[in-house]
Amino acid sequence: MEIAQFIADHLRNVSTDMVTVFIAMLPVAELRGAIPWAITLGDLPVWRAVVFSIIGNMIPIPFILILLGPVSNYLSRWRVFDRFFQWLFARTRKRSNALEKYEALGLILFVGIPLPITGAWTGSVAAFLFGIPLKRSLLYIFIGVCMSATIVTLTSVGLVGFVGMFR
Fold first, then answer.
1. pTM score of the predicted model
2. pLDDT digits over 92-130, tens only?
3. Where are the domains of the chain?
4. Fewer CB within 10 Å, N side or C side of the chain?
């Protein structure tokens, strides 16, 4: 939450909606940081916090899926980048056993269950590594992001607050 607050403090003239989108785009925070920030410090209604967080979390995903292969191939010519990509890909493979076995359900759960080192960014890397086609990857990651948003919202405002937002 510290990174999210630091960014928000330096973007005072930007709308709360756009700060929420920006926080959700960050690889560490994603919507797990954006939703609680938007509801508590950003003072957004729950539904807007969720919508703008999902939008922000999904913005970088097509770029990651499309550019990860060419960028990693190009940068791997240098030792420091080659070591980074070997570490990133090994870490992702280690955490994505269910994804390899169950593809769709595995990727949805990998992205959707808000645990450390999972989420849309890492899910995109995993989808790339396991060769899931772009359109299917986007759909599975989107479903996982919506699942994660639901879980994060329920834990942020509680079940009573979540049901109350639809009244």
1. 0.81
2. 777 666 676 788 899 999 999 998 888 999 999 989 888
3. 2-57+149-164, 61-147
4. C
